[in-house]
Amino acid sequence: MAIPVILVTGFLGAGKTTLINHLLSAADGRRLAAVVNDFGAINIDADLIAGAADGVVSLANGCICCSLQGDLLRTLGRLMRRDPPPDGIIIETSGVSDPAEIVTSLLDPVIWREAALEAVIALADARALTDKPDLLDDALCRAQIAAADIVALNKADLVTPDELVRARALLAALRPARVIFDVTEGRIAPELAFAGEPQAPREPGQAGRAHGFSTPRFETMSWTADAPLSLPRFQAAIGKLSPHLVRAKGFVAFREQAGRPLLFQLVGERATLGPAPAGRDGAPLVRLVLIAENGKLDADATRAMLEACIEREV
């Protein structure tokens, strides 16, 4: 199974490192690896350090930090060869870099099999956007926001409600409002980063709060099927559902590609299909988890829409 990768980009001083600190501290049992530009900016309490060697700082909760030195892909390869390998990798880009080239590299099919890009999170600074509304006239800032699947509008506590509305409107001119989330001190909900593995629901199609979520703001719906799906019907269903979703992830199989399990991911407006390992013995052929803000997902209608994608034997 490919290791999920989160790419963190955004304005200089917007809070990228603070967000990474938050994800590492809220790992919830995951062994995360953070590739950062500057160790000194990572707030690692000495009591949490389990050891340091070869440019890697190990934390007591199983997470590690390493400094980005030289080629990023070489650094990723070194991380993936660790024993045990990390459950997820977070990459911090420089505040003066366009993430497009890194995104292109991570979407290469060869790399995707080992390290699959899960989401691109861009940090925007609500205070800076309020003080300098023309900030997004800068081509680099626009490129960082345009590359994002999720935009975290940080420092929301440092502006008035009216200023926050105006800052969101500036960002919404570049990205849909539904992928913009107000945060304070980089505390993005971890489920927006790592969606987790799809699990069979207690009752197929039942919506409810996702296990392990740190906030009641989101709910999950799991759905399974034991028969392959129609690819055109699935694409049409996801097209209708995506405006209501924050994330979706799962294993799918299609009649048109018999015997080839695929990993499906939807985050923001980006949907991908990539190679997936063979299903576990006894596991449903299709396993999906959908994540939405509370009240945005009609479980019955969604289940009916997905079940209409199943290719029935005649």
Describe the SSE topology.
Blueprint lengths: L2 E8 L5 H10 L6 E5 L12 E5 L2 E4 L4 E4 L4 H9 L7 E5 L7 H7 L2 H4 L2 E11 H6 L7 H8 L3 E5 L6 H12 L7 E3 L7 H4 L13 E2 L9 E8 L5 H11 L5 E6 L9 E6 L2 E6 L10 E8 L5 H9 L7
Parallel strand pairs: 1-6, 1-7, 2-5, 2-6, 7-8, 8-9
Antiparallel strand pairs: 3-4, 4-5, 10-11, 11-15, 12-13, 12-15, 13-14
Whole-number mean pLDDT: 81
| Strands side by side in the biggest sheet | 3-4-5-2-6-1-7-8-9
Total DSSP E strands: 15
Residues in helix, %: 25-40%
Count of the separate structural domains: 2
Q: Quickly give the structural class.
A: alpha/beta
What is the CA–CA distance across the termini?
34 Å
Tally the helices: what do you get?
10
Order of helices and strands: EHEEEEHEHHEHHEHEHEEHEEEEH
Q: What overall form do the CA principal axes indicate?
A: globular
Low-pLDDT segments: 44-52, 198-215
Largest sheet: 9 strands, mixed
What CATH first level of the largest domain would be assigned? Alpha Beta
GO molecular function: hydrolase activity; nucleotide binding
GO cellular component, one term: cytoplasm
Catalytic activity: GTP + H2O = GDP + phosphate + H(+)
Keywords: Chaperone, Hydrolase, Nucleotide-binding
